[in-house]
């Protein structure tokens, strides 16, 4: 039978996912569950992957920041992070990291999308809606737009 491949082992499947990008433990568990005979089999594999340093929630957090922070505000990134069942300490560290750079990141997103101060109340509302939908706080958005208006 040409083209027949035996099914991948659970570990091979996990390493394949991890070689493409970092995954949280919860995300990898969800992806592997349909291919395992028991939930315990998945947890045993995940424990081994963590011991061997293939799987790391800390690296996953770094990866999440790298992939999302340049386009989204702290609220949006934190919302995604919470779906990955990270520990409280990891979530607090992530939130602190995002807050430190929130204004600069918001300014860059605003500059790429709009670049000029709003010329009407409607344009101002549109810019605010866009930025808030991206997960930036109203306080930060107000600061960015006021700064642009003051510069003109």
UniProtKB/TrEMBL annotation:
Q: Which family does it belong to?
A: Belongs to the RecX family.
Name this protein carries in UniProt: Regulatory protein RecX
Query: Which GO biological-process labels does this protein carry?
Result: regulation of DNA repair
Major place of residence: cytoplasm
Which organism's genome codes for this protein?
Cupriavidus campinensis
What does the function comment of this entry state?
Modulates RecA activity.
Does the record's keyword annotation contain Phosphoprotein?
no
Subcellular location per UniProt equals:
Cytoplasm
One Pfam assignment: RecX_HTH3
Keywords, A to Z, come to: Cytoplasm
Gene Ontology cellular-component terms for this entry are: cytoplasm
Q: Which residues form the RecX third three-helical domain?
A: 100-143
Domain (RecX first three-helical) ranges? 11-47
Taxonomic classification: Bacteria, Pseudomonadati, Pseudomonadota, Betaproteobacteria, Burkholderiales
Which Gene3D superfamilies is this protein grouped with?
A: Winged helix-like DNA-binding domain superfamily/Winged helix DNA-binding domain
Q: InterPro entries recorded for this chain?
A: RecX_HTH_1st, RecX_HTH_3rd, Regulatory_RecX, WH-like_DNA-bd_sf
């Amino acid at each position: 039978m040409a083209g027949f491949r035996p099914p991948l082992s659970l570990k091979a499947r996990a390493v394949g996912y991890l070689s493409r990008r970092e995954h949280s433990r919860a995300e990898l568990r969800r992806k592997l569950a349909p291919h395992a005979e028991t939930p315990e089999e998945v947890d045993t594999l995940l424990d081994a992957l963590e011991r061997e340093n293939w799987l790391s929630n800390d690296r996953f957090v770094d990866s999440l920041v790298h992939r999302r922070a340049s386009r989204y505000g702290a609220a949006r990134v934190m919302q995604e992070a919470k779906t990955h069942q990270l520990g409280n300490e990891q979530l607090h560290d992530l939130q602190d990291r995002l807050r430190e750079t929130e204004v600069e990141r918001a300014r860059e997103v605003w500059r790429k999308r709009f670049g000029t101060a709003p010329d009407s109340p409607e344009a101002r509302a549109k810019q605010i809606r866009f930025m808030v939908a991206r997960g930036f706080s109203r306080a930060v958005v107000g600061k960015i737009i006021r700064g642009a208006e003051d510069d003109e």
